[in-house]
Amino acid sequence: MGKIAVIGGGAAGFFAALSAKEAGKTHQVVIFEKSSKVLSKVKVSGGGRCNVTNACADIGELSKHYPRGERFLKKAFHEFNTTHTIQWFEERGVPLKTYPDNCIFPVANDSRVVIDCFLHESTRLGVEIRYSSGIDTIQSVDGKFQLNGPNVDEVVDRVIVTIGGQPKLTGLNWLANLGHTIIDPVPSLFTFNMPNETIRELMGTVVEETTVKIEGTKLMGKGPLLITHWGMSGPAILQLSAWGARILKEKGYEYKALVNWLDACNPEELAILLTETKGSQAEKKVYNANPFPLSNRLWKYLLDRAGINDSIKWKELGPKQQNRLVNTLLNDSYEVIGKTTFKEEFVTAGGVDLAEIDHQSMESKIRKGIYFAGEVMDIDGITGGFNFQAAWTTGYIAGKNAGISLD
Questions:
Q1: Using N-to-C axis directions, what is the helix angle for 11-23 and 386-404, rounded to 10°?
Q2: Average pLDDT over residues 209-227
Q3: 302 φ, ψ to 5°?
Q4: What pLDDT does 310 receive?
Q5: In 178-201, which positions are buried (b, 16+ CB within 10 angstroms) versus exposed (e)?
Q6: Same structural domain for residues 40 and 72?
Q7: Cβ-contact 361, 371 below 8 angstroms
Q8: pLDDT of 345 strictly over 80
Q9: Which residues pair with 96 in a beta bridge?
């Protein structure tokens, strides 16, 4: 009987532990969690509902949702992907529901059912969980591994590292000491702070289809946009922050965000639509006859921003006013100064270099017997269940291979 240590009691850690125990039923599997609670990120994700995965079933398309790790995961998804995830949870009494945006949540709309599932499976399979048991160092000793920490002094046969993303490089130093190359971590999936912009007064407003770009770059995000009391959030912004994680870090989080409030609509199409509106709504006030899928509050705000008196009639809208309105609707510029990240749900770009990890087994190429899963690797996805899917996939493969390697 061998002993497998899983370092980190998060999503990837539990999936790896359960996979290891199922692959090697006679082995002892222990989760070492540094805090007094496990699965904290699962609990708060998706507003407490837990966006388990995404309905994207095509492996090639699925892998494109990862700014870091696309090619690595494309290979790994052939062994465990979204279809497998759905089957795994439903076989264990957690029915799932797919929403129009392809996000998949538990039917219960409560992350606790996912947590309860993991804890129940751990008990059923005999996976041990040790709380307040952080690991500071790993040392190779006669083909085994010595783990040490404030409350830990253990020798194990295999180690699976699932400590998640670390906000600072120092959190990964102990892995660098093993010989691994660490890609400097930077925040991903953050919202934009706009302290000098009055649009914050429209907090709570949602526009379902937008395109947002960063001035002077090729970065682009598409989808719903949420106006908040600090600036802008929503899938379009989070997607943009993920793809631009390193570029925006280099800019010191100060730049111009260019918003197309009408998604992919171009100036020529909008000019035609406005001309048609001026004909069909000629006698109506511009404010009262809003031809766009924008709330009246936002429509009034954008009219003011374009310098158009909302009491004028559509037939009175002159060429210069129309041009200003087109520019405001399709290329609205906002000054971003800073970001907001949510500590419980933070995602980072960076971590252990994927070139040093075998995608077929998740085993280290530097230190045999050590495996990795989840965000501790240089892998991160955009919002929509993709980060959890990466955790399930890498956790499953790491656990399975750690388990069978001892047989």
A1: 30
A2: 97
A3: -70, -35
A4: 82
A5: bebebbebbbbbbbbbbeebebbe
A6: yes
A7: yes
A8: no
A9: 106
Of the residues 297, 319, 340, the one at which a domain ends: 340
CA atoms within 13 Å, Cβ hemisphere of 62: 27
Residue 19 pLDDT > 70, yes or no? yes
Examine the pLDDT at 386 and tell me if it is beyond 70.
yes
| Domain end among 340, 355, 385 | 340
**Rounded average pLDDT over 174-192:** 95
Q: Summarize pLDDT for 185-215 with one digit per residue, the tens.
A: 999 999 999 999 999 999 999 999 999 999 9
Residue holding tokens 């995602």? 347
Domain that includes residue 219, residue range: 191-340
Residues 97 and 202 grouped into a single domain:
no
Across the chain, what does the average pLDDT equal?
96
Check whether residue 207 and residue 333 sit in a common domain.
Answer: yes
Q: Is the pLDDT of residue 251 over 70?
A: yes
Would you say 322 and 274 are in contact if contact means Cβ atoms under 8 Å apart? yes
Are 227 and 331 in the same domain? yes
Q: Decide if 239 contacts 381 (C-beta within 8 A).
A: no
Q: How large is the angle between the packed helices 40-48 and 112-125, nearest 10 degrees?
A: 150
* DSSP states of 163-210: ----SSGGGGHHHHTTT--EEEEEEES-EEE-TT-GGGGGTT-EEEEE
How many distinct structural domains can be found in the chain? 2
The reply to whether 10 and 44 lie within a common domain is: yes
pTM for the model: 0.93
Same domain, 371 and 319: no
**Co-location of 41 and 177 in the same domain:** yes
Shared domain check, 112 and 205: no
How far apart CA 280 and CA 2 sit, in angstroms, is 77
Q: Would the pLDDT of 332 be above 80?
A: yes
Give pLDDT, residue 343.
63
User: Which class for 229: exposed (0-12), middle (13-18), buried (19 or more C-beta within 10 A)?
Assistant: exposed
Element containing residue 402 per DSSP (H, E): helix 386-404
- pLDDT tens figures, 39-76: 999 999 989 999 999 999 999 999 999 999 999 999 99
DSSP secondary structure string for all residues of 27-78: SEEEEE-SSS-S-HHHHHHHHHT---EES---HHHHHTT-TBTHHHHHHHTT
Residue whose entry in the numeric block shows the structure tokens 């960076």: 350
